[in-house]
Amino acid sequence: MELNVTKLSKRYGNKQVLDELTLSFTSGSTYLILGKNGAGKSTFVNILSGNLNSDGGEIVLEAGGEEYDLESNAVFQYQSFNSFRFLKVKEVIHFFSTITVDAKEDPELYKLLSLDRIHNQLIENLSGGERKAVSLYLTFLLNKRVVVLDEPFSELDIEKKYLLAKHLKQKLADQNAMTIIISHEILGYQELFTDVIIMDNGKVLETGKTQDLLDKYPNSPFQGLEGVFYSLTGKYIEVS
Ligand SMILES: Nc1ncnc2c1ncn2[C@@H]1O[C@H](COP(=O)(O)OP(=O)(O)OP(=O)(O)O)[C@@H](O)[C@H]1O
């Protein structure tokens, strides 16, 4: 399955937030879209999810020459989860598994996210990190072919990020999912990504396999993806 985005544009007033974005995503790969605050990452995800209209461009999901509906094949996790405030965690999870045809429970992920410790609590009483954990679990429970995560691990501690990355890497490979992760920090989970897309000011500056990009920009004052980002933008982004 391939997701092809061609010349996607969005403008607010005088500001060109997305400037003819052209990208290709393939099943079995996990993409990091890396950019500083305001680069246009969330705008891109909001257009992908159908929450926002673009000013122009095309988004096509296809496999074997046939076109598929993105909305019914994709799941989007948002930066915060505030729905179902008066239900308990386990009730929300149960509800989602009953309304989903191919729901896929994952006891290991449940435990890794510490949901076994909070499953009797109301959503409204959860901390930001706990809400994020619930939304992450629901995202994978829906078992879709395209998974889009917006800052998925930002409120989790470093040990949890590392363990989750390990678990998700295997899980996403087994499911042959196409995973797109938007982030401006990747401390503890860099190994999850097979591909990196670097965005700045609404433009794609570079895309490629993580190792290829590291090899392509060897002379930066910073190491790793910080170095790649700095070589391309002249800006520092803290990622590891
Ligand atoms: N509704 C809006 N009206 C006007 N400007 C907007 C609107 N939504 C976003 N913007 C502007 O578009 C630019 C891109 O915003 P966007 O949220 O896509 O960035 P981002 O890369 O996701 O940043 P972050 O990492 O902070 O979430 C920013 O300059 C933002 O101020």
In short:
The protein has 240 residues and is an alpha/beta fold. It has nine helices and ten strands.
Q: How many discrete domains? A: 1
- Strand neighbour order, sheet with most strands: 6-7-8-3-9-10
Total count of strands = 10
Mean pLDDT: 91
Morphology = globular
The CA-CA distance between the termini, in Å, is 31 Å
Fraction of residues in helix: 25-40%
Q: What summary fits the major beta sheet? A: 6 strands, mixed
What is the chains' assembly state?
Answer: single chain
CATH superfamily: P-loop containing nucleotide triphosphate hydrolases
CATH class division? Alpha Beta
The small molecules bound here are: adenosine-5'-triphosphate
CATH topology: Rossmann fold
Rg is 18 Å
Q: Do you know the CATH architecture? A: 3-Layer(aba) Sandwich
What keyword list fits this structure?
six-stranded mixed sheet; 10 strands; alpha/beta; Rossmann fold; 240 residues; four-stranded antiparallel sheet; binds adenosine-5'-triphosphate
Note down, in words, how this protein is organized:
One of its GO terms (molecular function) is ATP binding. This is ABC transporter ATP-binding protein. Residues 3-226 form the ABC transporter domain. It comes from Saccharibacillus kuerlensis. There is one protein chain. 34% of the residues lie in helices and 28% in strands. The longest helix is centred in the last third of the chain and has 18 residues, at 158-175. It has nine helices and ten strands. It is globular. It has 240 residues and is α/β, with parallel strands linked by helices. Strand 4 (56-63) and strand 5 (66-68) form a beta hairpin. It has a single domain (2-233), classed as Rossmann fold. The strands form two sheets. The protein has a six-stranded mixed sheet, with helices on both faces. A four-stranded antiparallel sheet has the order 2-1-4-5, covered by helices on one side. The site of adenosine-5'-triphosphate (ATP) has 11 residues, from helix 1.
